[in-house]
Amino acid sequence: MIRFFIFLFLVTSLFGARVETFRWSNGETYLSFLEKNNLPLKTLYYNLDEDERQLSEEILTGVNFQITRDKDETIAQAFIPLNDELQIHIYKFNNEYFFETIPIISETKTEAFIIKIENSPYLDILRETGSKKLAKIFVSGFQNSLNFKRDLKKGDTLAMIYEQKYRLGKPFSMPTLKASMIEMNGKRNYIYLNNDERYYNQEGSQVQGFLLAKPVNNARISSTFTKRRFHPILKKYRAHLGVDFAAGRGSPIQAAGDGRVIFLGTTRGYGNLTKVQHSDGYITLYAHQNSFRKGIKKGSLVKKGQVIGYIGSTGLSTGPHLHFGLYKDGEAIDPLRVVQVATKKISAKEKNAFLKLKSNYDESINLHITNETKYIRISMPDNVCYFFNGGDCVQNKLNSNS
Q1: What is the pLDDT of residue 155?
Q2: Which sign, positive or negative, has the C-alpha torsion 352, 161, 206, 305?
């Protein structure tokens, strides 16, 4: 009952407050955010459990977060996304601050548009939509198979069907390309997102070539990936944005693919940490290392299978293991699923399902081309939702009772 009244107070106070939106800056940490805003470090960081403290290091550069302030300009609430499903919620009640992780309320919409080429796919999509993300996901899908500079002509047709999440009425997270087409030399070239979450061309061949290697030989998986899970005993939302490989201290850690080291250093939660930038927008993360391999530093080029460090238990860790994270265009994805999907062969049954999916997308793209579907900019709605209860928007629920 007490939690209900706190919750009701938060919701009603929020909708009467001014909400400010900021972007998480490069190099900013959760602790520096607390210090900068004079928020209590002990309550909002040091008193948290290990999982919650480690989650605070998952805040991504460039993410939009919201703050409301009291009349004296101190922070009343803050909503900081961790991924596209979970966010940190800091709030003040009776002059005390509290920390929790709560689900993100978002709405997913399927959208599409057609463009006639004037300059290049990237520039034309950016001009039409204002979205670098949409331009990037289109170009990356074709970059290994088509030569836009050589074969593309002015007036050729480009089509995109994609899913976009909206949070607080604005685009949130990377859009998901569902199907795309570009006309070149009178031929239509297609890409489709199959049910196995991999991309294929019209011949049914995979179009992404980045494959993961297992980062630690003879290791046991001690924890798997989840973006959001409600712990039935702790009554808290949890997330584990990676896979933990348990192995003996000092076991070698291998790079999952060719790339460049973009971070090598020590953090509070992840201890000794290495991040490697790969092609096609992938980043891999290797945490809790005992030590780094001699000669590996920021800017080093590494090869798939090359030893880059050694298993340890630094940072917030209860035993020797590697926390292995994989990110695609800034979004955490399950490394095990990528390995599984990338290495399996499509069965005859799966091929039939793909051909049916392909036919449906082809029909949809043809319809959009006929109708000359334009990109539609979504306007900000009158009401936005910060919380939900039982699947319903709390704000609407309160309004309907008033």
Answers
A1: 94
A2: negative
